[in-house]
Amino acid sequence: MDEGEILIQELLDARKKLFDVIDQFDPTLEVYPRWTIKELLAHLAGWDDAVIDKLTAFVTGQPLQSPAIRGINFYNAKSVEERESLDLEHIRRECERTRQQVIALLRQVPPEKLHDDTIFPWSSHGTITQMIHIFIHHEGEEHYTDMLALYHKLHPDKK
């Protein structure tokens, strides 16, 4: 398996791991301050949108203005707010669709370009590989760890 396919598998594994734990929650439960599962999924879809824009620009050689130019917290709030009127199932489908778009675009990045320096959607820079690893960690470690800890707090008998 080449490096791009390994990254894709790691993205898929991180998403599955996170979704396996959040699927155990009542969707109306506040899992972060002012965020239910719906807002968490809106947040994930919003960052997938940013990666889609970044990968599209990278593949086509076009410049991209950072979608998080006003800061990560502002972008997070905007992503959630834009999806406020959508129901949970719609946002879940959007998460699935945007992740498939990320994967399709990642497959268009030539293997030799995975380590080219680029600007990330939040304005710092690194390689496409580093950017994808940040997203793998974001979902498969940060949010997963938070959700698993909350699950164990709510269900101490199910360790």
Largest sheet: 2 strands, antiparallel
Beta-strand content estimate: under 5%
Give the number of helices. 5
Spans where pLDDT lies below 50 across 5 or more residues: none
Strand order within the widest beta sheet: 1-2
Structural class: mainly alpha
Beta strand count:
2
Q: Shape from CA axes?
A: globular
**Overall pLDDT, averaged?**
93
Order of helices and strands: HHHHEEH
Radius of gyration: 16 Å
Helix content: 55-70%
Distance from N terminus to C terminus (CA atoms, Å) equals 35 Å
Note the topology.
Layout: H1 3-22, H2 37-60, H3 72-82, H4 88-106, E1 117-119, E2 125-127, H5 128-154
Brief account:
By secondary structure, the chain is mostly helical. It has helices at 3-22, 37-60, 72-82, 88-106, 128-154, and strands at residues 117-119, 125-127.
